[in-house]
Design brief:
This protein is an alpha/beta fold. The protein contains 13 helices and twelve strands. It has a seven-stranded parallel sheet, with helices on both faces. A five-stranded parallel sheet has the order 2-1-3-4-5. Helix 11 links the parallel strand 10 and strand 11. Helix 9 runs parallel beside helix 10. The chain starts with a strand and ends in a 12-residue tail after the last helix.
């Protein structure tokens, strides 16, 4: 008999196909488990597949008295209450670095699309304004990448790949993170100092209570009128109200966003602005990334049911 795994979040069937070959999936379809399965089925759940950004606290864990492992699909696990899990002897796993290259690529895409105003340029062509030789202030020349100062906030797997890509574009790279590393980039002791220095702030920090709205009105003001912010981490890191205000009054020049505070709903105020490029949290959504993330999930679940430690367990702080 195959081991049972509760699918706690809503996943496309294509993402679950490989897991279904190895385990018996109890798929909630994103609904509360008790609405889909019987009390006996819920009571026997030992492992759970979750989205790391979805809220999963102690009360939810207590609904599954035999739960021993929460395996997150992807790198993030900010929605999981790690203290509550530890208190209940529940191991938490994720897929560290599995989608780092893909997310870094989207960061670069958003930066280039924003700083070079690709969406505005696309519309300029489609509308016929270019053919009609109509003048547009949005089409004036912009600064290129050589010599541009790129600040990377967070120097994990994704941050390092972003930095390497920016360096290949002949840009200056600086960074701020909790740890200073032996890297060929300038280190700044605070986020404020990094924002003062750079013209593009790349947010690649892990989400959590300590980074909630850390990119606030003050940080945005420090970027300046020629500054840009790109966020591929979690929407909670930026104060969205402050960002809308900064974009509206031209405190900063623009933003590229792949994540939002309340997904899948981007604020109407953001969608109406021409100096913003938006994406539907697709940073890690490539074929290669999904295979890599699924490999981590399969390894974690297999190890758990074999009574072994999770190979990709979330490191305790």
């Amino acid at each position: 008999m195959a081991d049972k795994v509760l699918v706690y979040a809503r996943f496309p069937k294509t993402m679950l196909a490989r897991f279904a070959e190895r385990f018996e999936l109890l798929d909630t379809g994103g609904k509360p488990a008790h609405e889909v399965f019987s009390a006996d089925e819920i009571g026997g759940v030992r492992a759970m597949l979750a989205q790391g950004g979805g809220a999963l606290g102690g009360e939810a864990m207590d609904l599954f008295p035999k739960l021993g492992a929460i395996v997150c699909y992807g790198t993030g696990y900010d929605g999981v209450d790690l203290k509550a899990a530890a208190a209940r002897n529940i191991a938490v796993g994720h897929s560290p670095g599995a989608n780092a290259a893909s997310v870094a690529d989207i960061a670069m895409t958003l930066m280039l699309a924003t700083t070079r105003r690709i969406l505005v340029a696309d519309q300029y062509v489609r509308s016929g304004d270019w053919a009609a030789s109509k003048q547009s202030p949005m089409m004036r020349a912009q600064a290129g990448m050589p010599g541009r100062r790129i600040g990377v906030y967070g120097m994990g797997e994704i941050g390092r790949k972003i930095a390497a890509r920016c360096a290949a574009f002949e840009s200056e790279v600086g960074y701020f993170s909790r740890t200073r590393y032996d890297l060929p980039y300038q280190y700044f002791p605070t986020l404020e100092a990094l924002a003062d220095w750079c013209s593009v702030l790349m947010i690649a920090v892990r989400a959590g209570a300590e980074t909630q709205h850390v990119v606030n009105a003050d940080i945005l003001k420090r970027l300046g009128a020629d500054g840009y912010v790109v966020n591929i981490s979690r929407g909670s890191v930026i104060d969205e109200k402050a960002l809308v205000a900064a974009l509206t009054d031209k405190t900063i020049a623009g933003a590229g966003l792949d994540v939002f505070e309340k997904e899948p709903h981007a604020p109407d105020a953001l969608t109406a602005l021409p100096n913003v490029v938006l994406a539907p949290h697709l940073g890690g959504h490539t074929l290669e990334s999904h295979v890599a993330m699924q490999n981590c999930v399969l390894a974690n679940l297999t190890a758990f049911f074999e009574g072994k430690p999770l190979p990709y367990e979330v490191k305790k702080a």
